[in-house]
Amino acid sequence: MKGSDVAELRAFAAIIEHGNFARAAEWLGVSPSALSQTIRRLEVRLGQRLLNRTTRATRPTEAGQQLYERIRPALKEITEAQAQLQNQQGELGGRLRINASRTGAAYALAPHLTSFAQSYPRIEVEIVVSDRLEDVVESECDAGLRLGENLEQDMVGVPLSDPLRWIAVASPAYLARAGTPEHPADLKEHACINMRWPSGGHLYQWEFERDGQSVQVAVTGPLCTNDVATRLRAVKDGLGIGYFLEPEAWELLSSGDIVEVLGPWCAKEPGFSLYYPGNRLVTPQLRAFLDHIAACRRAEMRE
């Protein structure tokens, strides 16, 4: 049996035991949509409908109940064997290697690292920073961190941040000199600080949305760089308009050195997600991190 088969069966059992997709997804440390995809793969593989889903609850079909009764003892044995091995080893240790973009590492991972280290002092966390969409298997990482919209279908994604906005910003001095754009199309008449995708090498098209209307703009300007700090400095110094994830610009926005433009056109998008291949068994170190993140997000929601 492949590791992905075990993961699918464990996900199926969790839904029955927790009563619905939302609670099972929270317990597993995945998003409800990712869990739904896992169950669809299992049903296709087995050629049977396993769950009846309503607005209030999820119940197994007759075939699903039979499957659950057969696999429950085996899954229990697997869980107990893992717990016994960890107890024999003492406190959980080892290495957890995560590939992350520069911004994701700073704004989505970093806030959780201290509390995780306090809970698991023997786990060594290594953050491999790369703005390319790396293959976590080839890069020998346990997981990766990227914006949710960039995840491939065979990856299990666990939300790590709230939805984020891409925003256009400029200095007051630049706007006083060049005017303020009212529509994304106006950017073609402005000096813009460009950036190039690390993967593929093409220039990034700035994306906007308002009232169901989506607009992509290919901008031009005096500077192109993938370095966030350099782009922010250029915008602050009045070289042109820049395009950033909102957290990247918070400090300069708060100080008034730069201001947002085209605000109504800057819609929220999926935030950062921790992802890992759905066909691989989750390491104990990664499972501990996923559980820790889930606990942190629950605590934040209660505040």
Automatic annotation (TrEMBL):
Gene3D superfamilies: 3.40.190.290, Winged helix-like DNA-binding domain superfamily/Winged helix DNA-binding domain. InterPro entries: LysR-type_TF_proteobact-type, LysR_HTH_N, LysR_subst-bd, WH-like_DNA-bd_sf, WH_DNA-bd_sf. GO terms for molecular function: DNA-binding transcription factor activity; sequence-specific DNA binding. SUPFAM superfamilies: Periplasmic binding protein-like II, Winged helix' DNA-binding domain. It comes from the Bacteria. GO terms for biological process: DNA-templated transcription. Residues 1-61 form the HTH lysR-type domain. The keyword Transcription regulation applies. Keywords: DNA-binding, Transcription, Transcription regulation. Transmembrane segments: none annotated. It holds the Pfam family HTH_1. Belongs to the LysR transcriptional regulatory family. This is LysR family transcriptional regulator. It comes from Halomonas binhaiensis.
